[in-house]
Input
Amino acid sequence: MEEIIWQDTFSVGVTEMDDQHKKLIAMINRLIIEQKTLTTPATLAGLLTEMVDYSREHFRAEEYLMSEYGYDKKDQQVKLHEEFIQKTMEFCSATEIGPNILSVALLEYLQTWLMDHILKEDMQYKLFFESKGVA
Output
């Protein structure tokens, strides 16, 4: 699995959100690197926990911004955020299965979810925040 390279097409037009998305991508890339070195389940669990903690922080910031400006699809975003946290926590709990089998499924999930979420869900708020003068 190849690392994710940030592209301008990933930008949602809000600097804070873009910076946080870049950090999430960096965390996934770190997991990709660790997977290539056959890391231990404990290391993988630690990285996942760090990612979940940071994801919660990011989602809170994103949801706060949505609330502040009255974004009409906020509830849908909250639901998707909660599902992501739940699924990622399930992966954390399952790290004892073994790093090789689990990490492939985990990395595919994280990479697909984040890219789909940014490019489909988060892009929907790009014009909304732009119209509100949020950059």
